[in-house]
């Protein structure tokens, strides 16, 4: 049984990606073959021509031409080994289309990937998913169904299909992060841009695209360019999957032809637009209620309206929640999702989150938020800082009246109801620095090493903020380099008080009655003048 967290499917226009889902909870292989037939292998040149003819673009957000990806991998492989990689790692909390496809219609996705793999002569197809146990179980079952069909004399492709479950994070779906996770490394974006087409899974040329793209590719091969282009716009033919949530009475994944009015999609879901609609997810932008009335569902239509369609995420805000507070929740979440490997993410995003949270409380200023954005823009190791900056700047423009109300009255009078989707997950570990005041002489090195979490008073003595888990390594460095041996690092128990020493190798200060430097030594009793602990704005909402 499919749980409630996998959204229902709605449709406007013909059923293509969602064909058969009115009658089946999940399309197994026999049901899929009844609908779509057996997909015959195609020549690579023919497939590239098909994709060029309809200008097929990736549906993961970047909208890169799929034909160019195919050709780039073929050129890099030069007849040798290559890999086809399906990006099912949907780290965006407001998107559910990958989970829906993998859970309910996995064979259409696999058909497109296998079709590309056979044309390229690929070594294997790899499907990476972070969509939870249900999606992973569904795709594993689909692979087993194909294997069983071959054993019983079926004509399924014998290209190996490997399913890899990875840790779900906002940045897990970024191409470089996904490749690293599949290769057994930490799934964070690489510091330097690497093209998967030249070096991806196991260092081989890799065709990387998301689940909807491969499903669309299978349909293109099944229909041919002419029939495929019978729906949608002339420039962007076909249908598209949208995820509608937030203030919608009926959140759903919707299949609709391109060229449909956004207002019609919102009406289908009985959506309360309120102060605006977020388009493109948490690296997207806000449209006003007025702009949403005339915006068109297509890349070109959304660009004209002042937004980016991205991965097809639509989140109407509704009337009952504080718009600025909702935006601040997302900014805090995005700050906490940082990989922590570059200054703009590690330092800038928490500052940005604190600045916009200050506006919610009626303090701070819009100029302070804009300054924090300028520190971040175009300086990150990946797109995460720029995407977050884009979201925050869009919120400043969309909620100008609400911001003025907060600054004047301290609130707009509406609670923050948590309308914008956030992942439900266990809290990440947090740490704190503790100081032995009998040793500390105010060198200030800790503030130099951790400027975002350590403040110095007028006498040069430190006070500390809580430290997120991804900064634990840097905090340990500050402990090890303290000239007075006055610091220790402890993991909090979630309330900012108490906690345990944060693992070895850590130097613990001398305990009264204990042994100097002994691992696991009792925690020093609290004395006067303890450092101030304040909450960081960049924690997940």
């Amino acid at each position: 049984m499919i749980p409630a967290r996998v959204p229902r499917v709605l449709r406007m226009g013909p059923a293509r990606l969602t064909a058969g889902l009115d009658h089946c909870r999940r399309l197994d292989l026999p049901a899929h073959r009844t609908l779509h037939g057996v997909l015959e292998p195609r020549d690579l040149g023919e497939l590239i021509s098909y994709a060029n003819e309809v200008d097929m673009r990736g549906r993961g957000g970047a909208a890169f031409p799929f034909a160019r990806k195919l050709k780039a991998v073929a050129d890099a492989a030069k007849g040798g080994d290559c890999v086809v990689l399906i990006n099912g790692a949907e780290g965006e909390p407001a998107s559910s289309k990958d989970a829906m496809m993998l859970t309910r219609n996995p064979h259409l996705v696999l058909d497109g990937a296998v079709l590309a793999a056979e044309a390229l002569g690929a070594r294997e197809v790899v499907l990476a998913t972070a969509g939870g146990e249900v999606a992973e179980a569904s795709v594993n079952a689909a692979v087993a169904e194909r294997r069983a069909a071959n054993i019983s004399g079926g004509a399924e492709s014998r290209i190996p299909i490997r399913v890899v479950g990875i840790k779900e994070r906002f940045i897990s779906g970024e191409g470089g992060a996904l490749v690293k996770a599949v290769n057994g490394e930490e799934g964070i974006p690489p510091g330097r841009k690497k093209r998967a087409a030249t070096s991806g899974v196991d260092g081989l040329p890799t065709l990387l695209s998301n689940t909807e793209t491969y499903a669309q590719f299978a349909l293109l091969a099944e229909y041919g360019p002419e029939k495929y282009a019978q729906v949608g716009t002339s420039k962007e033919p076909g249908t598209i999957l949208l995820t509608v949530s937030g203030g919608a009475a009926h959140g759903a994944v919707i299949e609709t032809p391109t060229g449909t009015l956004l207002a019609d999609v919102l009406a289908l879901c009985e959506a309360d637009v309120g102060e605006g609609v977020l388009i493109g997810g948490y690296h997207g932008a806000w449209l006003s209620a007025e702009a949403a009335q005339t915006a068109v569902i297509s890349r070109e239509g959304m660009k004209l309206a002042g937004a980016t369609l991205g991965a097809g995420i639509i989140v109407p805000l509704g009337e009952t929640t504080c718009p600025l507070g909702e935006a601040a929740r997302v900014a805090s979440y995005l700050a906490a999702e940082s990989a922590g490997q570059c200054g703009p993410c590690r330092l800038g995003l928490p500052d940005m989150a604190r600045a916009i949270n200050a506006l919610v409380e009626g303090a701070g200023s819009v100029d302070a938020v804009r300054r924090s954005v300028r520190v971040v823009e175009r300086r990150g190791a990946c797109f995460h800082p720029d995407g977050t900056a884009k979201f925050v700047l869009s919120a400043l423009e969309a909620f100008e009246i609400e911001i003025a109300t907060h600054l004047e009255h301290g609130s707009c009078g509406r609670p923050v109801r948590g309308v914008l989707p956030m992942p439900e997950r266990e809290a990440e570990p947090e740490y704190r620095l503790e100081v032995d005041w009998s040793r500390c002489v105010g060198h200030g090195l800790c503030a130099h090493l951790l400027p975002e979490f350590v403040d110095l008073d007028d006498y040069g003595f430190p006070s500390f903020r809580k430290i997120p888990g991804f900064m634990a390594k840097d905090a340990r460095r500050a402990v090890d380099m303290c000239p007075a041996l006055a610091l220790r690092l402890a993991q909090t128990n979630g309330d900012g008080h108490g906690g345990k020493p944060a693992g070895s190798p850590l130097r613990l200060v001398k305990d009264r009655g204990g042994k100097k430097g002994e691992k696991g030594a009792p925690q020093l009793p609290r004395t006067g003048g303890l450092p101030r602990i304040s909450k960081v704005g960049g924690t997940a909402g």
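Residues 503-541 have pLDDT under 50 and may be disordered. The chain has 19 helices and 17 strands.
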